[in-house]
Specification:
alpha+beta, 15% helix
């Protein structure tokens, strides 16, 4: 009986540590949000999305500053896109590994502070037909020191793709 109890405790401990590894040690301290400037209509040629990191904790959090190069965005961000009927859209660039040779730079967010920037995700997506889609972005990082490591999911935003000739912004 003692062996069974010890095994249950061990499994519970392993589950907590695997969950901590998969979800990031700082899970619950950092919030990722996305929004569209227009919130309603975009064209498939320009999908400008605002990405916001909010420190929702009571301590400082460092984020590896690595968002300047559009070519490396798929390393830091995964995009989940579904048509309005729930069908996942395939052909989205994602993943990879890199070697950071230059000096690592960080963004420090104090308690309750935020940071945002814009990216054009049209370069990461296949050509989209007109229609309504559900967009979610996941940030993941395994690099750097004394910074957020792990992954966090954003909120889900509905975007509407319109023909650029018919008045999309």
């Amino acid at each position: 009986m003692k062996n069974i109890i010890a095994l249950i405790i061990l499994i519970g401990f392993l589950f907590l540590n695997i969950n901590k590894y998969c979800m990031g040690e700082d899970m619950g301290l950092l919030k990722l949000g996305i929004s569209s400037e227009d919130q309603i209509e975009l064209t498939a040629k320009q999908l400008l999305i605002r990405i916001t990191f909010d420190n929702i904790s009571s301590k400082e959090i460092n984020i590896l500053k690595s968002f300047e190069d559009n070519k490396t965005l798929p390393i830091w961000f995964s995009i989940s896109l579904k048509s309005d009927d729930g069908t996942p859209i395939s052909g989205i660039s994602s993943g990879g590994k890199i070697t950071i040779r230059s000096e690592k730079k960080y963004i420090t967010l104090g308690p309750q502070e935020g940071f945002f920037f814009y990216i054009d995700i049209s370069k990461l997506l296949p050509n989209l037909k007109e229609g309504t889609y559900q967009l979610m972005i996941t940030y993941h990082n395994q690099y750097g020191q004394d910074c957020f490591k792990g992954q966090i999911d954003s909120n889900i935003v509905k975007i509407k793709i319109v023909d650029s000739k018919s008045g999309g912004k």
